[in-house]
Specification:
Length: 327
């Protein structure tokens, strides 16, 4: 009996030990392996983002699209190299992403400083944060140590990235699949305070909502009329772009949420946030609080999103080029 208890104790200690050695993200992961890594990223962003401030929005969206498919592992950056494996990059939601060359440039600077040390997944997470901060948005913590994935499938992007036609149930399900709750859904949707959309992402709401040439009754009719007259002139317009938060699409502020309450959220997924009492009350709470409160809460949800299913320790790899797996 004593021998059995002794064995049990040792087994328990082993489990605790294994748990504690499991690699995790940590602040300043590169502080000894590449001490200037985070500085190099930040300097490059600060020097170049002002030439193209719209990159802050698209790279923030890139980080989201990366994390929702196989975790934050830079799988969104991989090029399709054979006809029998279409990667995430060519899936419909990712066709409007930009900024891949910006990520490649940062990667080349880091490879010059510390070859094969800094992952593309960490670069996306750091650039997204630094670009948002450089354009006046919130700061959030980016613990590092993510490693890069080797698999990328277009079909998985379609299954996991919420489409703009999502209703509340769909959004709740897709966020819950990633371990994110309704508060995260409301806060992270607040990223639509910056950036643009193509007409094609919402023109069904203007021209053919139920298939009989009608308009979405949940969209403010004056706003819809304006969009039709000045911007999205037909159902099939897939080139014109529209500010998602008209009047302040370059400023990270609360006006996205104000638009939601006026039924002026651009996507069905935006307006869906006002169809559920829990998310509606989060929206109201954010609007009643100061901007700093939104920034702090957004930061918490971004840090949470940045931890989704990360590969650490010995899983995955450190890609040499962000668009291709190592040979
Ligand atoms: C809740 C579900 C979401 C849906 C359905 C959704 C959908 C979309 C769509 C359709 C666009 C416009 C794409 C285009 O036509 O060019 C867009 C843009 C954008 N999204 Fe989302 N999104 C969601 C959540 C998020 C989250 C969680 C983030 C980041 C944390 C985010 C950040 C952005 C940004 C910054 C843009 C502007 C991109 C640019 O200016 O190029 N979105 N989103």
């Amino acid at each position: 009996m004593r021998g059995f208890r002794h064995f049990g104790m040792m087994f328990f200690c082993l489990l605790v030990f294994m748990g504690s050695t499991e690699a995790q993200l940590q602040m300043g992961f590169y502080s000894s392996s590449c001490p200037n890594a985070e500085r190099i990223v930040q300097d490059y962003v600060n020097r170049h983002i002002h030439n193209a401030p719209s990159l802050a929005a698209t790279i923030l969206r890139m980080h989201f699209h990366d994390c929702f498919v196989r975790g934050c592992d830079a799988s969104v950056l991989l090029n399709t190299t054979s006809s029998n494996n279409q990667t995430e990059k060519v899936a419909t939601p990712n066709l409007t992403l930009r900024g891949f060359d910006f990520i490649d440039k940062v990667k080349s600077l880091l490879e010059a400083a510390c070859p094969a040390v800094v992952s593309c997944a960490d670069i996306v997470a750091l650039v997204a944060r630094d670009a948002v901060v450089a354009t006046g948005g919130p700061f959030w913590r980016v613990p590092t140590g993510r490693r890069d994935g080797t698999i990328s499938r277009s079909s998985e992007a379609l299954n996991n990235i919420p489409p703009p036609t999502s209703n509340f149930t769909n959004l709740q399900r897709l966020f819950a699949n990633q371990g994110l709750d309704l508060k995260d859904l409301v806060l992270l949707s607040g990223a639509h305070t910056i950036g643009i959309s193509h007409c094609s992402s919402f023109s069904n709401r203007l021209y053919n909502f139920t298939g009989v040439g009608d308009q979405d009754p949940a969209l403010d009719s004056e706003y819809a009329a304006n969009l039709k007259a000045r911007k999205c002139r037909s159902l099939n317009d897939n080139t014109t772009i529209v500010e998602m938060d008209p009047g302040s699409f370059r400023t990270f502020d609360l006006s996205y949420y104000r638009h939601l309450l006026k039924r002026r959220g651009l996507f069905q997924s935006d307006s869906a946030l006002t169809t559920n009492s829990t998310t509606l009350s989060f929206v109201n709470q954010l609007l009643q609080g100061p901007l700093q409160n939104f920034f702090a809460e957004f930061a918490n949800s971004m840090e949470k999103m940045g931890r989704i299913n990360v590969k650490t320790g010995t899983t995955g790899e450190i890609r040499k080029h962000c668009a291709v797996v190592n040979s």
